[in-house]
Amino acid sequence: VIALLAHAISGRSDLPLPLPLFIYGAAFALVASFVALRALWGDPHLAASAGGREAPSWMHRAAAGASWALSAIGLVAYLVVVTAAFVGADDSSRNLAPVAVYIVFWVGLQICSAVVGNVWRSLSPFETIARLLRRWLPDDDVPSSHWVAAGMLLAFAWLELAYHHPADPRVVAVALTIHGLLLLGGMLRYGRRWLRMADGFGVLFSFIALIAPVFRDDEGRLRFRLPFSGLATLRPIPGTVAVIEVALGATAFDGTSRSSFWRNLTAGQTGWGRTVTSTVGLLAVTGAVAITYELGCSQIKRFTSGPRRDSAPERTDHPTERFAHSLVPIAVAYAIAHYFSALVFEGQSAYALVSDPFGRSWDLFGTAARTIDYTVISSSGIAYVQAGAIVVGHVAGVVVAHDRAVEELPPKAAARSQYPLLAVMVGYTVAGLALLLGA
Amino acid sequence: VTSTRVIVLAAALVLAGCTGNGEPSPVIEATSTSAPTSVASTASTTASTASAPAVEEIKISVAGATVTGGGRHKVARGSTVRITVTADVSDEVHLHGYDKKANVTPTAAATIELVVNIPGVFEIELEKRAKQLAQLEVTA
User: What are A40-60's pLDDT values in tens digits?
Assistant: First the structure.
C-alpha cells in the first residue's frame, strides 16, 4: 500500500531481496542469537555505560548553537509545509507538503534520530513554541501516559498506509490541523510536559534517539556513549510498549501490503473499499506483532528458575515493559529496510520542491528543475542496506535484552529466561526478511 | 572487557553485512501476455523482423472492473519495452517512476515504448481513476 503513497509521489518500489541475502541474513541472525546466549557478558553493563562521557566544551557550544538554528529552521519549515498543504498546488508532485511529511519528516527523522540523537527536541515547532511561551504555560502535572502518543502514531500509520489518498495535499492539511490542535490545546491545558506524553512522533523519536552515540544530559550538556547503550535507560510508562508495537506493526503491514498475496487480495479495489481492506490489514498485522511480543514476554517467567542476584533491582514492572527497549532497534531496522530507498529517491523531490513549495513555478534556491536521479544507489546497494539493517537491529535487540536479563539473574539462568523473547525476535527478523523477499 | 566484546560484535556485524554475494537472481524472461482479441494492434507487427532488437511486449486491457494482463511483468534492465493498454474508458495511462504518459480511449489504445534503465518495481495505472493496472519490474 506504500504504492499508494509512493505512487502518488513517485511510483517506484524496491526489487525483491535476492535469495542469498535472505538466507545469509536469517542464518546470521540465528547464529548471533545463540552466541548471545552463550558468550555475552555475565554482568549488566549497558545501564552503567549509558551515562557516557562529556564532550569537549567547544562541541557543547556548537551543539547549543545548532540547537537554536534547528529550532528556527523547524518553525519556518513547519509554517511553509502547513501553508503548502492548505493553499499550495492540489497535486502531490508539485506540492512540498506530502513529501515533507511522509518522507523527510517521518522516515528522515527516524534514521536521523538513531544516528545523531534527539534532534526533534530542537526541531519541533511545538517544543519551540513551548519554550517561547514558558512563562505563560501552566505547570500542571499531566498524567504519565503514552497512550495518546500511541493513538497518534496508529492514526498516522492508518493515513499513510490504509487511507486511499494519503498524498493529497488537502488531506495532509487536515491531518496537520488535527495534530497541531491536539498538541497546542494540550499544551495550553497541561503545559510543556504534554508534548512529552502526547506527541507520538516526539515520543518515538526520543526512544530511537537512545540508540545514538550522542545525547544531552539533564543539564543540557553534550555527552557521548556506546551506541545502543542509551536504550537501557528507557523507563516505560503506560502506553510506552504500545508506541513501540505500533511503530513495528505499521512497518510490518507496509511490507505485507507489498507482497503478491496482498496485491492479489486488493486487486481491483479502489477508493474506500481499498481503505477498509487496508485498515483491517493494518490492525491485524499490528495486533499480530503486539500479541507475539506479549506472548513471548508472558513465557519468560516459565523459563526463569533459580535464585535472583543479590544485586537485582526490585522490579514491579511487567516483562513487556522491562524488555520494551529491545524492540526499538528492531522497529528502526524495519523502518530503514522499508523506507531507505524512499528517503534516497523521493527525498530528492523534496530538494526540488523546497524551491517551489506551493507549485507556483518559483525557483527560490535554483533547484526547482531537479528530477529524481535513480542511479545514486544501485539496487544491490539497497538490498544490502535492507538486509544489513534487519540483522543489525536483531543483534542489537538481543544484546540489550540480554543485558537487562542479567541485571536480575545469574548468567546461566538469564540466558535460559531469554528463550521465549529470542524466539519472538528471530520470528520478527525472519518475517522482516521474508517480506522483503516477497516484495 | 565488556566494551571490547561489544566492539568485536559490531565488527562481526559489519563483516556479516559485507559477505555473501548480493547478485540478484538471474533475469527472468519478460512475460508477454497474450493479446486481448479486440486490440487493434497497429504497432506490434514490426518487432518480429530479424535484425531489430527484441521488444518486450506488455499488453493490458481493461473492461469494466476486469484487468487482463495485469500483475507483475519482469523485464531485464536495458531492454526495450512496449506497453499497450486498451480500455473501455477514456483515461491517461501512467507508468510511474519513468513518468511516461499516454492517453487511452475506447477506440484508441495507449502505447508507451521506452528503454528501461532504472531497476525497481514501477506502477502502471489509469491516472484519473487511480486504478492500478499492473507493475513493471525491471531487474538489475
Answer: 888 888 998 999 999 999 999
Considering only alpha carbons, which residue of chain A is nearest residue B65? A268
* Contacts of B8-16 spanning 24+ positions with Cβ under 8 A: B9/A395, B9/A399, B12/A32, B13/A391, B13/A392, B13/A395, B16/A24, B16/A28, B16/A391
Using a CB-CB cut-off of 8 Å, the residues of chain A touching B25 are: 18-19
Which of chain A's residues have a Cβ under 8 Å away from the Cβ of B1? 41
Which chain B residues contact residue A439 at CB under 8 A? 121
Q: Which residues contact A353 (CB under 8 A, 6 or more apart)?
A: A94, A95, A96, A99, A100, A368
pTM of the model: 0.86
Convert the pLDDT of each residue in B113-127 to its tens digit: 999 999 999 989 888
Grid cell for residue A143: 498524567
Q: What residue in B sits closest to A28 (Cα-Cα)?
A: B16
- Eight-class DSSP state of A412: H
ipTM: 0.80
Show Cβ contacts of residue A81 under 8 Å, excluding neighbours closer than 6 positions.
Answer: A96, A97, A100, A101, A176, A357
Q: Which residues pair with A215 in a beta bridge?
A: A223
Q: Can you read off the three cell numbers belonging to residue B71?
A: 500483475
- Contact yes or no for B106/B87 (Cβ under 8 A): yes
State percent of chain A over pLDDT 70: 98
Q: What are phi and psi of A199, to 5 degrees?
A: -75, 95
What is the reported pLDDT for A271?
83
Of A407, A419, A422, the residue nearest A46 (C-alpha): A407
Q: Residue B17: which of A13, A18, A391 has the nearest Cβ?
A: A391
Asked if the Cβ–Cβ distance from B16 to A24 is below 8 Å, we say: yes
